[in-house]
């Protein structure tokens, strides 16, 4: 899946392809976060808002005959247009995604480019829709059949749902069947996540206060419009972090597939933060340092503990295979050794089927990922070396799963034409299975520092 961005923040024109692990690195103000927020916004919009349009004739036939059959092949053939419509509709929402003025996005474009061969519909699908404990209609697709069958389960006279709602429900099911495997469910940890961890209780109070005040507003004001403005000054990923941290006590009652099947990963995460998060029976959140009889509030805990809070709860309580975990600057507040351990954690997640997308300034993370790639070879010497240095098989990373892009100024073709111009874009980095990632964004800085220090020590007197 290739993402194409134009005129978005610092990015004049850029594109990148999602891998099992996707990394964008580069200097400050180079467009990394813009691309990250736009991708998260699109995936959220696609899952929660966008619906495939169902013709009026199909809805009428369902209501008249009690059933219809839709051929998935018709929608596969029209997938490019469906996706184009979705991207155009999302582009109009960019000001809301970034909580910024519309004028900043008047020329922006966001597109997803697919080959029809990329589309891999769900082989089987079964869903029953209802309201008020009454089953209204069913949507199903059988294995090896191109037909989607929709049945009314009540007499049409008793069906009180508006046709527009029926159309949307069917469109949502079609979207899941057609694109469900292609567009992952995103979870994002924004660079502002530390603040959300500290002020989570205050954020609860702010929303509760607005709910209280809603009793006194004029009746012609839509209360949901008022409620949606609580975080209107923040970009969508930041709002997503806030909403997630507000729900930690509820989320703590669930177990992810990682908690059930791969507890070793949770042990590794506990090693990174030096303890565990604890939600008490009174729904209070604490951090418990390993080996100590003390419970620390988030205010009392280290910045690293707060920085990794939402990632820790995601891993233990929410994560599912096929997800896309997006982390803006995972190195925030972490010691270099823990940056290395986070890189190894991400590699384990990729090997479990969770896609990982990060932006980073950390040479330690890139170098550690290099090591995981370089050790992933059928070599007795390297296997012994990996064992000696404490690397496990489930941490090693295949080079073909990784895509790395450098945010920098470079020459690009304008709209695919022969004419070129220099602008801020993404340049894909080479990845060699034996040598790792060519991360020149960091290499030059490190080389300059080494050169300066060598001159200081060995240069002699003028």
Structure description:
42% of the residues lie in helices and 22% in strands. α1 packs across α4 and α13 runs antiparallel to α16. β6 and β7 form a beta hairpin. It is an alpha/beta fold and 462 residues long. About 2% of the residues have low confidence. It is built from 19 helices and 17 strands. The chain has a domain of 114 residues.
- How many β-strands, per DSSP? 17
Shape, principal axes of CA atoms: globular
How many whole angstroms does the radius of gyration measure?
25 Å
In what range is the share of β-strand residues? 15-25%
Characterize the largest beta sheet: strand count, sense, and whether it forms a barrel: 6 strands, mixed
Largest sheet, spatial ordering of strands: 9-12-13-3-14-15
SS class: alpha/beta
Unreliable stretches, pLDDT < 50, 5 or more residues? 221-231
What would the average pLDDT be, to the nearest integer? 86
Number of helices: 19
Which range best describes the helical content: under 10%, 10-25%, 25-40%, 40-55%, 55-70% or over 70%?
40-55%
Distance between the termini: 57 Å
